């Protein structure tokens, strides 16, 4: 039902998705071609639970959906200011637990499958390579199916995001907090001040 969807979180996601970005291509007259940052042009052919389908659609905009307080909320991985600063004073026993990703989890190449409108929407593959990771680790391939993607440049941006995330976001911090952290929601950016 309408009241089960938080329209303001969807509005925030939509504003980010609708911003025009450069595709990397030019028209014959030399002007740059722009398109919305993220679009979903998919056909839902199989019967699945609604929440599962929503999660698949959210992946197209590098986001997620979650259920909280009797509503579905949407969030997106986009630049933002931290909503909170977490210090040992905010954490039970003042303890942060850090962990890193395995080197095996870092890829240097992503093969993104998308549907090419110039070829009757047949599946096509966009190869995205991170030269620095390729020199460092060799050819480590990851394959992705980007549901609802009909833009080669969107597939390329998605692949670049995957490689950048694996390269730079390779540390996780865990902590247990009290009620003073209730304002932090999934997808929010926080700052950690751990001496």
Topology:
Blueprint: H1 7-18, E1 20-26, E2 32-36, H2 50-60, E3 63-68, E4 71-76, E5 84-86, E6 97-100, E7 109-116, E8 122-129, H3 131-137, E9 141-145, H4 152-168, E10 171-174, E11 190-192
Parallel strand pairs: 5-11, 7-9
Antiparallel strand pairs: 1-2, 3-4, 6-10, 7-8
Brief summary of the model shown:
A three-stranded mixed beta sheet has the order 8-7-9. Strands 1-2 form a two-stranded antiparallel sheet. Strands 3-4 form a two-stranded antiparallel sheet. The mean pLDDT is 92.
Task: Provide structural commentary.
The protein is α/β, with parallel strands linked by helices and 195 residues long. Helix content is 24%, strand content 30%. The protein has four helices and eleven strands, in the order αββαββββββαβαββ. The longest helix is centred in the C-terminal third of the chain and has 17 residues, at 152-168. The radius of gyration is 19 Å and the shape is globular. The N and C termini lie far apart (47 Å). The mean pLDDT is 92.
Please identify the structural class as seen in this structure. alpha/beta
Uncertain ranges: none
* Residues in helix, %: 10-25%
**Biggest sheet descriptor:** 3 strands, mixed
Give the overall shape.
globular
Mean pLDDT: 92
Strand content: 25-35%
Order of helices and strands: HEEHEEEEEEHEHEE
């Amino acid at each position: 039902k309408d009241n089960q969807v938080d329209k303001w979180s969807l509005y925030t996601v939509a504003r980010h998705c609708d911003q025009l970005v450069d595709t990397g291509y030019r028209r014959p007259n030399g002007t740059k071609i722009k398109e919305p940052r993220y679009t979903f042009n998919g056909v839902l052919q199989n019967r699945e639970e609604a929440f599962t389908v929503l999660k698949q659609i959210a992946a197209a905009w590098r986001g997620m959906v979650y259920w909280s307080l009797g509503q579905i909320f949407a969030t997106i991985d986009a630049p933002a200011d931290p909503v909170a600063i977490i210090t040992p004073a905010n954490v039970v026993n003042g303890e942060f637990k850090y962990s890193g990703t395995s080197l095996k989890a870092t890829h240097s190449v992503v093969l993104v499958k998308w549907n090419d409108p110039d070829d009757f929407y047949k599946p096509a593959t966009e190869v995205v390579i991170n030269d620095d990771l390729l020199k460092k680790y060799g050819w480590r391939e990851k394959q992705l199916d980007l549901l609802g993607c009909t833009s080669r440049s969107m597939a390329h941006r998605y692949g670049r995001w995957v490689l950048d995330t694996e390269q730079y976001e390779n540390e996780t911090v865990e902590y247990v907090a009290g009620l003073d952290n209730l304002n932090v929601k999934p997808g929010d950016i926080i700052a950690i001040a751990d001496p």
